[in-house]
Amino acid sequence: MERALKETPKKRRFRSLDITRGLIVLLSVFLFHIPAGGYEYLRHARWYDITIMDYILPGFITVFGVGMAFAYHRGVNWSKLIKRTIRLIIYGLIFNMIVDWKVDLSTIRITGVLQLYGVLGLLAVIISTLVKSWRLLIPVVAFILLIHGYILFSFSQSCTGGLLQPDCNPSGIIDVAVFGAEHLYHQGTMGYDPEGFMTVIGALSNVLLGMIAGRILLEKRDKGAWKELILFGAAVLLLSYAASNFLPFNKKIWTPSFAMLTAGTVITVFAFIHLVFDQLKKTNKGILTWYIEAFGRNSFLIYFGKFIVYSFLARIMIDAGGKEVSFSAWLLSKMDQVTQYPQLAYAGVMLLAWSAVAIILHLKKWYVKA
Q: Quick one: residue 76, left, alpha or beta (phi over 0 = left, psi -120 to 50 = alpha)?
Protein backbone atom coordinates (compact mmCIF):
# COMPACT_ATOMS: atom_id res chain seq x y z
CA MET A 1 0.00 0.00 0.00
CA GLU A 2 1.09 3.57 -0.51
CA ARG A 3 2.65 5.39 2.40
CA ALA A 4 0.40 7.46 4.64
CA LEU A 5 -0.12 10.88 3.13
CA LYS A 6 -1.44 14.01 4.75
CA GLU A 7 -4.77 14.80 3.15
CA THR A 8 -5.02 17.92 1.05
CA PRO A 9 -8.22 19.98 0.99
CA LYS A 10 -10.85 18.51 -1.32
CA LYS A 11 -14.41 19.16 -2.25
CA ARG A 12 -17.12 18.01 0.09
CA ARG A 13 -17.03 14.30 0.88
CA PHE A 14 -19.99 12.08 1.47
CA ARG A 15 -19.60 11.44 5.19
CA SER A 16 -22.02 8.55 4.85
CA LEU A 17 -19.41 6.56 2.90
CA ASP A 18 -16.74 6.98 5.57
CA ILE A 19 -19.20 6.22 8.38
CA THR A 20 -20.58 3.09 6.68
CA ARG A 21 -17.09 1.85 5.90
CA GLY A 22 -15.99 2.71 9.44
CA LEU A 23 -18.83 0.70 10.99
CA ILE A 24 -17.90 -2.34 8.91
CA VAL A 25 -14.19 -2.12 9.79
CA LEU A 26 -14.84 -1.43 13.48
CA LEU A 27 -17.12 -4.44 13.67
CA SER A 28 -14.59 -6.59 11.80
CA VAL A 29 -11.82 -5.71 14.29
CA PHE A 30 -13.92 -6.76 17.29
CA LEU A 31 -15.37 -9.95 15.79
CA PHE A 32 -12.08 -11.09 14.29
CA HIS A 33 -10.29 -10.94 17.63
CA ILE A 34 -12.76 -13.07 19.60
CA PRO A 35 -10.67 -16.19 20.46
CA ALA A 36 -11.87 -19.67 19.59
CA GLY A 37 -14.28 -21.43 21.90
CA GLY A 38 -17.92 -20.40 22.07
CA TYR A 39 -19.77 -17.54 20.39
CA GLU A 40 -20.30 -19.56 17.20
CA TYR A 41 -23.02 -17.11 16.13
CA LEU A 42 -20.31 -14.43 15.89
CA ARG A 43 -18.08 -16.53 13.62
CA HIS A 44 -18.40 -17.44 9.96
CA ALA A 45 -21.14 -19.92 9.20
CA ARG A 46 -19.65 -23.38 8.67
CA TRP A 47 -21.21 -23.76 5.22
CA TYR A 48 -24.81 -22.74 4.56
CA ASP A 49 -26.60 -19.98 6.50
CA ILE A 50 -25.16 -16.59 7.40
CA THR A 51 -23.86 -14.86 10.54
CA ILE A 52 -22.98 -11.24 11.24
CA MET A 53 -19.31 -12.09 10.55
CA ASP A 54 -20.26 -13.19 7.04
CA TYR A 55 -21.40 -9.65 6.23
CA ILE A 56 -17.99 -8.08 6.83
CA LEU A 57 -16.04 -8.85 3.63
CA PRO A 58 -18.96 -8.53 1.17
CA GLY A 59 -20.03 -5.36 2.99
CA PHE A 60 -16.55 -3.93 2.62
CA ILE A 61 -16.54 -4.92 -1.07
CA THR A 62 -19.96 -3.34 -1.67
CA VAL A 63 -18.83 -0.06 -0.08
CA PHE A 64 -15.65 -0.38 -2.15
CA GLY A 65 -17.94 -0.29 -5.20
CA VAL A 66 -19.70 2.84 -3.93
CA GLY A 67 -16.34 4.55 -3.49
CA MET A 68 -15.24 3.51 -6.98
CA ALA A 69 -18.31 5.18 -8.45
CA PHE A 70 -17.16 8.43 -6.84
CA ALA A 71 -13.50 7.97 -7.75
CA TYR A 72 -13.99 7.20 -11.45
CA HIS A 73 -17.06 9.18 -12.43
CA ARG A 74 -14.92 11.77 -14.23
CA GLY A 75 -12.66 9.32 -16.01
CA VAL A 76 -10.12 6.56 -15.50
CA ASN A 77 -6.36 6.78 -15.40
CA TRP A 78 -5.74 3.32 -16.83
CA SER A 79 -2.01 3.31 -16.18
CA LYS A 80 -2.60 4.12 -12.51
CA LEU A 81 -5.39 1.54 -12.24
CA ILE A 82 -3.31 -1.27 -13.75
CA LYS A 83 -0.35 -0.41 -11.49
CA ARG A 84 -2.71 -0.43 -8.51
CA THR A 85 -4.03 -3.86 -9.50
CA ILE A 86 -0.54 -5.31 -9.84
CA ARG A 87 0.47 -3.71 -6.55
CA LEU A 88 -2.50 -5.24 -4.70
CA ILE A 89 -1.71 -8.70 -6.09
CA ILE A 90 1.94 -8.42 -4.99
CA TYR A 91 0.94 -7.08 -1.57
CA GLY A 92 -1.52 -9.95 -1.30
CA LEU A 93 1.19 -12.55 -1.89
CA ILE A 94 3.43 -10.90 0.71
CA PHE A 95 0.46 -10.67 3.07
CA ASN A 96 -0.16 -14.42 2.68
CA MET A 97 3.45 -15.21 3.55
CA ILE A 98 3.31 -13.03 6.67
CA VAL A 99 0.01 -14.49 7.86
CA ASP A 100 1.19 -18.08 7.19
CA TRP A 101 4.56 -17.19 8.75
CA LYS A 102 6.60 -18.92 6.07
CA VAL A 103 8.22 -18.22 2.73
CA ASP A 104 7.70 -21.26 0.53
CA LEU A 105 6.94 -20.54 -3.10
CA SER A 106 5.97 -24.18 -3.68
CA THR A 107 3.00 -23.87 -1.31
CA ILE A 108 2.34 -20.12 -1.17
CA ARG A 109 -1.33 -19.30 -1.44
CA ILE A 110 -1.90 -17.38 -4.68
CA THR A 111 -5.46 -16.32 -3.93
CA GLY A 112 -6.44 -13.93 -1.14
CA VAL A 113 -8.50 -10.91 -0.18
CA LEU A 114 -6.05 -8.28 -1.48
CA GLN A 115 -5.76 -10.13 -4.78
CA LEU A 116 -9.56 -10.31 -4.88
CA TYR A 117 -9.78 -6.54 -4.40
CA GLY A 118 -7.29 -5.87 -7.15
CA VAL A 119 -9.02 -8.08 -9.71
CA LEU A 120 -12.52 -6.92 -8.74
CA GLY A 121 -11.51 -3.27 -9.01
CA LEU A 122 -10.09 -3.73 -12.50
CA LEU A 123 -13.07 -5.76 -13.77
CA ALA A 124 -15.62 -3.36 -12.28
CA VAL A 125 -13.97 -0.31 -13.84
CA ILE A 126 -13.80 -2.02 -17.26
CA ILE A 127 -17.50 -2.92 -17.10
CA SER A 128 -18.60 0.47 -15.76
CA THR A 129 -16.58 2.24 -18.46
CA LEU A 130 -18.36 0.24 -21.18
CA VAL A 131 -21.75 0.67 -19.48
CA LYS A 132 -21.90 4.26 -18.26
CA SER A 133 -25.55 4.40 -17.17
CA TRP A 134 -26.39 2.89 -13.78
CA ARG A 135 -29.75 1.85 -15.23
CA LEU A 136 -28.00 -0.28 -17.85
CA LEU A 137 -25.63 -1.68 -15.22
CA ILE A 138 -28.60 -3.35 -13.50
CA PRO A 139 -29.25 -5.87 -16.31
CA VAL A 140 -25.48 -6.47 -16.54
CA VAL A 141 -25.40 -7.43 -12.86
CA ALA A 142 -28.53 -9.55 -13.34
CA PHE A 143 -26.80 -11.38 -16.19
CA ILE A 144 -23.68 -12.04 -14.06
CA LEU A 145 -25.84 -13.34 -11.20
CA LEU A 146 -27.84 -15.58 -13.54
CA ILE A 147 -24.73 -17.05 -15.19
CA HIS A 148 -23.03 -17.62 -11.85
CA GLY A 149 -26.21 -19.10 -10.41
CA TYR A 150 -26.71 -21.36 -13.41
CA ILE A 151 -23.16 -22.76 -13.12
CA LEU A 152 -23.54 -23.42 -9.39
CA PHE A 153 -27.06 -24.83 -9.63
CA SER A 154 -26.17 -27.14 -12.53
CA PHE A 155 -23.18 -28.45 -10.61
CA SER A 156 -25.24 -28.93 -7.44
CA GLN A 157 -27.46 -31.51 -9.15
CA SER A 158 -24.60 -34.00 -8.93
CA CYS A 159 -24.05 -33.36 -5.20
CA THR A 160 -25.63 -35.07 -2.20
CA GLY A 161 -29.15 -33.77 -1.66
CA GLY A 162 -28.88 -31.57 -4.74
CA LEU A 163 -26.89 -28.98 -2.75
CA LEU A 164 -23.30 -27.85 -3.17
CA GLN A 165 -20.97 -29.27 -0.49
CA PRO A 166 -17.40 -28.49 0.65
CA ASP A 167 -16.19 -31.46 -1.39
CA CYS A 168 -18.69 -31.01 -4.24
CA ASN A 169 -18.58 -27.58 -5.85
CA PRO A 170 -16.98 -25.94 -8.93
CA SER A 171 -14.23 -24.25 -6.90
CA GLY A 172 -12.70 -27.60 -6.05
CA ILE A 173 -12.25 -28.27 -9.77
CA ILE A 174 -11.74 -24.86 -11.40
CA ASP A 175 -9.49 -23.27 -8.77
CA VAL A 176 -7.36 -26.39 -8.48
CA ALA A 177 -6.95 -26.42 -12.26
CA VAL A 178 -6.11 -22.69 -12.44
CA PHE A 179 -3.87 -22.26 -9.39
CA GLY A 180 -2.89 -25.77 -8.30
CA ALA A 181 -4.06 -27.53 -5.14
CA GLU A 182 -1.01 -26.49 -3.11
CA HIS A 183 -1.63 -22.80 -3.79
CA LEU A 184 -5.19 -22.59 -2.48
CA TYR A 185 -6.93 -21.94 0.83
CA HIS A 186 -5.77 -24.91 2.90
CA GLN A 187 -8.46 -24.61 5.56
CA GLY A 188 -10.92 -25.57 2.86
CA THR A 189 -8.79 -28.70 2.39
CA MET A 190 -8.56 -27.69 -1.28
CA GLY A 191 -12.25 -28.48 -1.75
CA TYR A 192 -13.03 -24.80 -2.19
CA ASP A 193 -11.31 -21.43 -2.03
CA PRO A 194 -13.32 -18.49 -0.61
CA GLU A 195 -11.30 -16.03 -2.72
CA GLY A 196 -10.89 -18.20 -5.81
CA PHE A 197 -12.01 -17.83 -9.40
CA MET A 198 -15.67 -18.65 -8.72
CA THR A 199 -15.76 -16.15 -5.87
CA VAL A 200 -14.55 -13.40 -8.20
CA ILE A 201 -17.70 -13.89 -10.29
CA GLY A 202 -19.98 -13.75 -7.26
CA ALA A 203 -18.20 -10.86 -5.53
CA LEU A 204 -18.19 -8.85 -8.77
CA SER A 205 -21.94 -8.50 -8.26
CA ASN A 206 -21.33 -6.84 -4.88
CA VAL A 207 -18.90 -4.33 -6.39
CA LEU A 208 -21.21 -3.46 -9.28
CA LEU A 209 -24.27 -3.16 -7.03
CA GLY A 210 -22.23 -0.79 -4.89
CA MET A 211 -21.22 1.18 -7.99
CA ILE A 212 -24.87 1.45 -9.01
CA ALA A 213 -25.71 2.85 -5.56
CA GLY A 214 -22.82 5.31 -5.87
CA ARG A 215 -23.95 6.46 -9.30
CA ILE A 216 -27.52 6.92 -8.10
CA LEU A 217 -26.19 9.12 -5.31
CA LEU A 218 -24.01 11.16 -7.68
CA GLU A 219 -26.89 11.67 -10.11
CA LYS A 220 -29.26 12.86 -7.41
CA ARG A 221 -26.80 14.45 -5.00
CA ASP A 222 -28.57 17.84 -5.08
CA LYS A 223 -32.04 16.51 -4.27
CA GLY A 224 -30.88 13.60 -2.16
CA ALA A 225 -31.01 9.96 -3.11
CA TRP A 226 -31.89 8.17 0.13
CA LYS A 227 -35.35 7.08 -1.06
CA GLU A 228 -34.00 5.65 -4.31
CA LEU A 229 -31.19 3.91 -2.45
CA ILE A 230 -33.58 2.36 0.06
CA LEU A 231 -35.85 1.13 -2.73
CA PHE A 232 -32.88 -0.26 -4.63
CA GLY A 233 -31.45 -1.97 -1.54
CA ALA A 234 -34.85 -3.41 -0.59
CA ALA A 235 -35.40 -4.77 -4.10
CA VAL A 236 -32.00 -6.50 -4.03
CA LEU A 237 -32.83 -7.95 -0.60
CA LEU A 238 -36.14 -9.36 -1.79
CA LEU A 239 -34.47 -10.96 -4.81
CA SER A 240 -31.86 -12.52 -2.53
CA TYR A 241 -34.52 -14.44 -0.60
CA ALA A 242 -36.13 -15.58 -3.84
CA ALA A 243 -32.74 -16.82 -5.10
CA SER A 244 -32.05 -18.62 -1.80
CA ASN A 245 -34.77 -21.14 -2.69
CA PHE A 246 -32.45 -22.44 -5.42
CA LEU A 247 -29.01 -21.74 -3.91
CA PRO A 248 -29.00 -21.01 -0.15
CA PHE A 249 -26.88 -18.29 1.43
CA ASN A 250 -23.25 -19.41 1.43
CA LYS A 251 -20.19 -17.21 1.85
CA LYS A 252 -17.59 -19.90 1.18
CA ILE A 253 -18.66 -20.19 -2.47
CA TRP A 254 -20.38 -16.77 -2.63
CA THR A 255 -23.75 -17.87 -3.98
CA PRO A 256 -25.87 -15.26 -5.83
CA SER A 257 -28.34 -15.18 -2.94
CA PHE A 258 -25.47 -14.38 -0.57
CA ALA A 259 -24.13 -11.65 -2.86
CA MET A 260 -27.54 -9.97 -3.11
CA LEU A 261 -28.38 -10.34 0.59
CA THR A 262 -25.14 -8.71 1.73
CA ALA A 263 -25.15 -5.99 -0.95
CA GLY A 264 -28.82 -5.18 -0.39
CA THR A 265 -28.33 -4.94 3.38
CA VAL A 266 -25.29 -2.67 3.12
CA ILE A 267 -26.90 -0.40 0.52
CA THR A 268 -30.01 -0.03 2.70
CA VAL A 269 -27.92 0.81 5.78
CA PHE A 270 -25.84 3.21 3.68
CA ALA A 271 -29.06 4.92 2.49
CA PHE A 272 -30.19 5.67 6.05
CA ILE A 273 -26.73 6.89 7.05
CA HIS A 274 -26.69 9.12 3.95
CA LEU A 275 -30.06 10.56 4.96
CA VAL A 276 -28.92 11.38 8.48
CA PHE A 277 -25.39 12.64 7.88
CA ASP A 278 -25.37 14.03 4.33
CA GLN A 279 -28.90 15.29 3.83
CA LEU A 280 -30.15 16.17 7.30
CA LYS A 281 -26.57 16.85 8.46
CA LYS A 282 -27.26 15.57 11.95
CA THR A 283 -24.57 15.26 14.66
CA ASN A 284 -21.87 16.62 12.40
CA LYS A 285 -19.54 17.15 15.35
CA GLY A 286 -20.47 14.09 17.40
CA ILE A 287 -17.54 12.31 19.05
CA LEU A 288 -18.97 8.88 18.22
CA THR A 289 -19.37 9.59 14.52
CA TRP A 290 -15.90 11.16 14.39
CA TYR A 291 -14.54 7.98 16.00
CA ILE A 292 -16.31 5.77 13.45
CA GLU A 293 -15.05 7.98 10.62
CA ALA A 294 -11.50 7.48 11.92
CA PHE A 295 -11.87 3.77 11.13
CA GLY A 296 -13.50 4.53 7.78
CA ARG A 297 -10.76 6.88 6.61
CA ASN A 298 -8.05 4.27 7.27
CA SER A 299 -10.16 1.24 6.45
CA PHE A 300 -7.58 -0.59 4.31
CA LEU A 301 -4.79 -0.18 6.86
CA ILE A 302 -6.92 -1.40 9.77
CA TYR A 303 -8.84 -4.11 7.92
CA PHE A 304 -5.71 -5.84 6.64
CA GLY A 305 -3.39 -4.73 9.41
CA LYS A 306 -5.33 -6.67 12.02
CA PHE A 307 -4.46 -9.97 10.28
CA ILE A 308 -0.75 -9.16 10.35
CA VAL A 309 -0.80 -8.07 14.00
CA TYR A 310 -2.75 -11.20 14.90
CA SER A 311 -0.12 -13.36 13.21
CA PHE A 312 2.68 -11.65 15.14
CA LEU A 313 0.93 -11.88 18.52
CA ALA A 314 0.25 -15.58 17.98
CA ARG A 315 3.97 -16.21 17.41
CA ILE A 316 5.63 -13.90 19.92
CA MET A 317 6.46 -16.20 22.83
CA ILE A 318 6.79 -15.01 26.43
CA ASP A 319 7.52 -16.71 29.73
CA ALA A 320 4.41 -17.29 31.84
CA GLY A 321 5.33 -19.00 35.09
CA GLY A 322 8.09 -21.08 33.56
CA LYS A 323 6.02 -22.00 30.51
CA GLU A 324 6.38 -20.41 27.10
CA VAL A 325 3.09 -19.23 25.62
CA SER A 326 2.17 -16.87 22.84
CA PHE A 327 1.46 -13.26 23.73
CA SER A 328 -2.17 -13.65 22.62
CA ALA A 329 -2.61 -16.72 24.86
CA TRP A 330 -1.00 -14.85 27.78
CA LEU A 331 -3.30 -11.86 27.29
CA LEU A 332 -6.35 -14.13 27.14
CA SER A 333 -5.29 -15.79 30.41
CA LYS A 334 -5.09 -12.37 32.05
CA MET A 335 -8.59 -11.55 30.84
CA ASP A 336 -9.77 -14.84 32.32
CA GLN A 337 -8.58 -13.67 35.73
CA VAL A 338 -10.61 -10.47 35.75
CA THR A 339 -13.88 -11.27 33.94
CA GLN A 340 -16.37 -14.02 33.22
CA TYR A 341 -16.17 -13.13 29.55
CA PRO A 342 -12.44 -13.32 28.74
CA GLN A 343 -12.92 -13.78 25.00
CA LEU A 344 -15.06 -10.67 24.63
CA ALA A 345 -12.68 -8.74 26.91
CA TYR A 346 -9.71 -9.84 24.78
CA ALA A 347 -11.49 -8.62 21.64
CA GLY A 348 -12.29 -5.37 23.44
CA VAL A 349 -8.62 -4.80 24.30
CA MET A 350 -7.61 -5.33 20.69
CA LEU A 351 -10.34 -2.96 19.56
CA LEU A 352 -8.99 -0.33 21.97
CA ALA A 353 -5.51 -0.77 20.52
CA TRP A 354 -6.73 -0.32 16.96
CA SER A 355 -8.91 2.59 18.09
CA ALA A 356 -5.78 4.37 19.32
CA VAL A 357 -4.16 3.85 15.90
CA ALA A 358 -7.25 5.08 14.05
CA ILE A 359 -7.69 8.14 16.27
CA ILE A 360 -4.05 9.24 16.12
CA LEU A 361 -3.92 8.91 12.34
CA HIS A 362 -7.25 10.71 11.95
CA LEU A 363 -6.09 13.58 14.18
CA LYS A 364 -2.97 13.96 12.05
CA LYS A 365 -5.03 13.50 8.87
CA TRP A 366 -2.77 10.68 7.71
CA TYR A 367 -4.53 8.11 5.57
CA VAL A 368 -3.10 4.98 4.02
CA LYS A 369 -4.55 4.17 0.62
CA ALA A 370 -4.18 1.12 -1.58
A: beta
